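This section describes the prediction task in plain terms. A model, or a person checking by hand, is given the sequence of a single protein chain and must write out its three-dimensional structure as a string of tokens. No templates, partner chains or ligands are provided. The sample shown here is typical of the held-out split.
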Amino acid sequence: MPHQAGRFGRHHAPRRRAAPEWPDLASRWAPAAALALSVALVSAFVAGCGGTRSSAPAAVAAVRPPVLLDGAALHLPLDRYLLSPRESASVARAYRALLAQCTRRFGLPDPRPRPVASDLPATLNERRYGITDAALAATAGYRVSKPRPAGEPPTPAESATTPDPGTLDILTGRHPGAVDGRPIPAGGCAGEAKRRLNAGAPAGTDPDLAQRLSQTSYFASGRDGRVQEVLRAWSACMGRHGLHYSSPLDAAADPRFRTGPVSATETAVAATDITCKKQTNLVGVWFDVESELQRPDLAANRKALEGIRQTNQIQLTVARGLGLG
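The expected answer:
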């Protein structure tokens, strides 16, 4: 958007504005919510694997994989360097609170508050390999929680309107200057909020490293011959019940189960899905393979990952200090 440099060099006060529709700056600094990541992983995995046999050679397992089912109880090696879905939400709210504290100094109204999501997974791996909670599936099917009652209005979506140039300058600091004699901080209020959120964190940390490694191990494990074999066993189990899916993630992506009320068909498919996971030990095999793949990456990046862990703890401390932990 064209804008004249030095716009705030004249030290004037901004006119009073309506509540701004700010860009989603919080998502830049807080780690992505695991639920959104899970949806992306599901889509990419289904598109990329589709139940076809992988040409990647299967490594010889030294021991039999553990027998596992409960995804919420799984702890992969890289998990200690990642925020949980609810921790990520707390850090994002903290960032927005710090941003608002800064913008108030320049006379901007606070952004519209975002509702606290009530349907986040409890843990990072609750749905990494598909649904595993039979009690929840009996009522919610493939949903994270039971859908909103029909009479309850949906949460309104935020507008994507771009802030006016003056507000954008205050938010981003793209044109250094001052407003009513008050200097805009370096990087704008977004930069100030980021610095406060990460005060004392190790310098030079790549905040996305752990997430990238986790995604890489997920896709690599899906191509592993052992996982492909157990996926075929799961698919055959489903087929014996008249259900035809190449993987549990394919079942979860069934368009019939994405919107609207939970049907008896959805809960029946979800229950069979979990039964077949249990019979084939799909979760145990997949978790074991992915854990094996993550360990070398962790060892090769331990110093950088430790910096991320320290940064995560600092961010959570800031969030708790703001009453958002």
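For orientation: Strands lie at 178-179, 182-183.
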